[in-house]
Amino acid sequence: MYLCVISVCLQVPVEGFIGDSVVLPCSSAEHDLKLQDINVLWRNKDSETIYDLIKGKASVEQQDPRYKNRAETFPEEYERGNFSLKLQNLTHTDEGEFNCFITHTDELRTIQLIVKEEFSLEMTYKVKVEKVGWHFYFL
Predict the structure, then answer these.
(1) How many CB atoms lie within 10 A of CB 38?
(2) Alpha carbon distance 14, 58 (integer Å)
(3) On the CB side of 44, how many CA atoms lie within 13 Å of its CA?
(4) Which pLDDT does position 119 carry in this prediction?
(5) Which of 7, 34, 48, 99 could form a disulfide with 64 if both were Cys (CB 3.0 to 4.6 A apart)?
(6) Per-residue pLDDT reduced to its tens digit, 70-106
(7) Cα of 137 vs its chain's centroid, Å
(8) Residue 6 and residue 17: Cα distance in Å, rounded?
C-alpha cells in the first residue's frame, strides 16, 4: 500500500500583457536544497511540458515547441527553493493554468496566468494662447 501526500497551495493569479514577460512564482517550503535532489516539472493547462529541472539542471528535450527560447528559470535561486519561471513574449494562447510540481518535497503550485491586450490612452489637448500685456494665459 502506498500513500502519496502532495502539498497544494492556493491558485496564484498573475497578469501579463501580450508581447511582455511575466514571472510565474514557484517556491518550496524547504530551503537549503541540494542541486542533485532538485526535480521540478512545469506544465500548462494541457499538461504540455514548459520546462523541467532534472537533478538541478534544465532539461528541454520534452519541451513543447511553443515554449522553446521563451521559458527560463533562475538557477542561482534553486538552492534557496525558488523555482519561478520567466515566460517571455506572451501570447493569448499562454493564458490559463500552469502547474509547478516539486518532486523532492511533493509540492504542487498552481498559477493562473491572465494575458491582457496592452493598450495606450492618448489624450489631445487644445491650448489657447492670448497675449495680454506681458502675460500669457494658457487655458
Answers:
(1) 21
(2) 23
(3) 18
(4) 65
(5) 48
(6) 999 999 999 889 999 999 999 999 999 999 999 988 9
(7) 50
(8) 32
Distance CA 108, CA 6 (A): 7
Who contacts 137 (Cβ-Cβ below 8 Å, separation ≥6)?
A: 129, 130
The residue type of 23 is V
**pLDDT above 90: percentage of residues in the chain:** 62
**Of 21, 14, 113, 114, which is closest to residue 70 (Cα–Cα)?**
21
**Per-residue pLDDT at 3:** 36
* Separation of alpha carbons 80 and 120, rounded Å: 39
Indicate the length of the chain as a whole number: 139
Q: In order of start, what are the domains of the chain with their CATH numbers?
A: 7-138 (2.60.40.10)
To 5 degrees, how large is the angle CA 64–CA 68–CA 72? 110
Place of cell 539542471: 57
d(CA 102, CA 14): 20
Q: d(Cα 139, Cα 24) in Å, to the nearest integer?
A: 47
